[in-house]
Amino acid sequence: MTKSGSDLATRLLVAIVLIGLAAVALWVGGLGFWLVIATIGLLMMGEWADLSGATLQHKRLSQYALTVPLAIMAPGLAAGPGFLALGLVIGAAFFVAAVTRSGRLASGVLYVGLPVLALLTLRMEEPHGLLYTFWAMALVWACDSGAYFAGRAIGGPKLAPQISPNKTWAGFIGGVAAAGIFAALLVWLGLPVPLAIATPVLAMLAQLGDLYESHLKREAGVKDSGNLLPGHGGIMDRLDGLVAVAPVAALLVLVLPR
């Protein structure tokens, strides 16, 4: 097997493992889902700290600060996802800013904490928490796939060449279309029509989240946010779109008529 073929096989294997882990955690829900999401959040906080150029001491401090709201979010053990957890996420960000004098590092607490809170809120939204959370997560996967194949097949003008040279407008439109089609199919499983209508906008947010993370990496002078996932880079590299989508998806579920 050639080196490129070996890399592709590694990337595919890791992707299958990640999808399997996400599917099991999503299906189990409750403490199992919280444990997976909270662990991922702490790892992402570490990657954010590295991209921000934080010292090891400040990196650990930001992770410790984030553990407080994450613990409060645990379903059945404390207050669970809610306004108290939201307040503690914001409070943890202010605490990190006050101690480290780094607004960039403190903003990472919000970057990580708010999507975690949003996903847990979606999963606990009975009786359709499983469907809503799957919708929020999978629309990002559909968008990524549509963008990749449309970009490769069509090419054309670049979307943001100074930030991410490989992304094209064709890929952007393909990603939005793929997410929209995916949401339309989910309507047959009970996804409310207003959420399906909002999905193309969320797909745009997902791609903006991807661009934002690319911007962070360019500022830091690195190719990937980390090296935890062979063939994929860091956790932020895989979840940058979901970070942007999850809070808005949760807000839509809470406010839109269903």
Cα-based radius of gyration, to the nearest Å? 18 Å
- Determine the fraction of residues in helical runs and give it as a percent range: over 70%
Overall number of strands: 2
Q: Approximately what portion of the residues adopt beta-strand conformation? A: under 5%
Number of alpha- plus pi-helical segments? 9
Our measurement of the CA-to-CA distance between the termini, rounded to an integer number of angstroms, reads 52 Å
Structural class assignment: mainly alpha
Q: What is the element string, with H for helices and E for strands? A: HHHHHHEEHHH
Average pLDDT for all residues: 91
Largest sheet: 2 strands, antiparallel
Task: For the largest sheet, list the strands in their spatial order.
Answer: 1-2
Based on CA inertia axes, which overall geometry fits?
A: globular
Low-pLDDT stretches are none
